Amino acid sequence: VASDDTVLISDTSASGALRKMTRANFVSGIGGTNTPAFLVSKASDQSISQGTTTKVTFDNEVYDVGSCFASNKFTVPANEGGTYLLYYNIRINAGAASVVQYVQGAFYKNNAQLTRTEGLDYRNNNGGYSNLVTRSFAIPLDAGDYIEVYVDQAQSSGTPTVRGEGSGILMSTFGGYKIIE
Q: CB count, 10 Å around CB of 125?
């Protein structure tokens, strides 16, 4: 459909009269883009200490529309305040001889905890335990607000890690985008 094609609209306020409008005028103001938007991942494993809340350092930008991700945090660009959908998926690997008692992930907004989520654990193929903690969250943010991801864990042995990429698979990710309002 060309932008200068016409669309007929029935105007009920004028006793059913038909009105003409170009397609371009009819659809103006409809739609938009979900930007800024970003997705980052871990390229390599990150050790995390027991009983310590640790900031996850994402070192691989999959995409960053709007240049909003830097220094391991998402920052709302100037003039881009609004509602954002944010999410993370963090995989913790405990190793063959380790058992992770719990893992928690959290969003931090402007250096203050915003949410906390308990992770799921499962026995992996090499006899150790792995954990997955995932969260999605919609939140209104102002220009300059920033969001970071943290993890906390307790293990009975070994040194767990936040998993980086494995065979080209993104194991731990953090992403988000502005919701069209």
A: 7
Among the listed residues 49, 102, 42, the one whose alpha carbon sits nearest the alpha carbon of residue 72: 42
According to DSSP, the β-strands at 146-155 and 54-55 are: antiparallel
Structure tokens at 95: 């190793």
Amino acid at 18: L
In angstroms, the CA 121 to CA 118 distance is 10
C-alpha distances (whole Å) from 30 to each of 16, 66, 73, 116, 146 are 25, 21, 31, 36, 29
**Residues belonging to the chain:** 181
The whole-number pLDDT of residue 101 equals 65
Kindly tell me the number of DSSP H helices and DSSP E strands found in the chain.
1, 17
Mean pLDDT, all residues of the chain: 84
Residue pair 83/130 in contact (Cβ under 8 Å)? The answer is no
Which pTM value belongs to this model?
Answer: 0.79
d(CA 69, CA 75): 6
Helix locations, the chain, DSSP H: 23-27
For the chain, percent helix, then strand, then coil, each to nearest 5? 5, 50, 45
CA dist., res. 79 & res. 181, Å (int): 14
